[in-house]
Amino acid sequence: MIGGNLGAILMSMTDVKAGVLNAAGAGWFDILENTGQTAAFQCPLVDALIDAGVLMGTKFDPVAGTGTCTTDAWKSQIGYRQFSAIARWILDPADPANFGDKLAPKKFLLQRINPDEVLPNLATENLGELSGQLRGDASCGVLNPSPPPTMFPSTALLAAPTTSQYLDYMTVPASASCPGNTFSHGSLLKPEAGAAGTLATVRLQTDAGYFLISNN
Q: Is 51 helix (H, G, I), strand (E, B) or coil?
């Protein structure tokens, strides 16, 4: 998550020729407020704000699974809204959202994992929109009957390999027209269990490799 976000900033500010932004996004507080990793990210923040007197509520109980952080009510408290406004302002200089216009003329492949349990899809949508990209679909790959490679690159990449792309990789079941795959936030390097998880990783890596080779 952090690597892809910082990679977007790096690409926008340097002469890197081409890059792949996997599971990347923009809007640090959009990510924090909407991530599916409640216990890991939201609860420590909410508990700290309760201790500081910014929020009212009860601290997280990991055994019982209870606490103010386990619902969305804390986001609407006046204390949090004031804190969020100030924090967003402080983080603005290091938020990928403010580098979208500089990223737009670069050559990049933005890969959105759908669903993404760590980086909310909202954040990837932010980055895609701010960098001027329309989202295409890359959910279903086509297996190569004579490997290697195991799978062909996405149709969108084959059609325009030297153009920036924003592609959606959605978990889909196997069917007559699709081999099926299981995507997760870390699928680029760590496949989910089973053949569908392996195919998802192959899909991401094939597209990433093809894009970089096409733009070397």
A: helix
CB 163 within 8 A of CB 131: no
pLDDT digits (tens, 9 = 90+) for 39-56: 999 999 999 999 999 999
pLDDT at 1: 65
Nearest to 134 by CA among 158, 104, 94, 92: 104
CB 46 within 8 A of CB 67: yes
Helices (H) and strands (E) in the chain, counts: 8, 4
Phi, psi (rounded to 5 degrees) for 143: -70, 145
What are 68-87's pLDDT values in tens digits?
A: 999 999 999 999 999 999 99
Query: By C-alpha distance, which of 12, 16, 36, 4 is closest to 215?
Result: 16
Q: Mean of the pLDDT values across residues 210-214?
A: 96
Neighbour count for residue 156 (Cβ, 10 Å):
17
Non-local (6+) Cβ contacts of 13 within 8 A are: 99, 102
Nearest CA to 156 out of 199, 100, 203 is that of: 203
- pTM comes to 0.92
Structure tokens, 130: 């701010």
Q: Is the pLDDT of residue 152 over 80?
A: yes
- What gap in Å lies between CA 84 and CA 123, rounded to an integer? 16
Report the SS3 class of residue 144.
coil
Amino acid (one-letter) located at 128: G
**Full set of structural domains in the chain with CATH:** 2-27+95-214 (3.40.50.1820), 30-93 (no CATH)
